[in-house]
């Protein structure tokens, strides 16, 4: 399932309201500020803090700028 990158202009991290970036390899939306990854379900972002994955420093280094 693909993700419409145009959504990055209108969605934000539910925790800090910061910008999200698309991690193509993992198919995650990532908040750099909170170090959270949000997965997609059937192509739809699940923007719920309680369902987000907390990323390690190593995982954060792999997130594109």
UniProtKB/TrEMBL annotation:
InterPro entries assigned: Trm112-like
Pfam families given in the database record: Trm112p
Domain of life: Bacteria
Designated name of the protein: Uncharacterized conserved protein, possible metal-binding domain
Native organism: Idiomarina baltica OS145
Classification lineage: Bacteria, Pseudomonadati, Pseudomonadota, Gammaproteobacteria, Alteromonadales
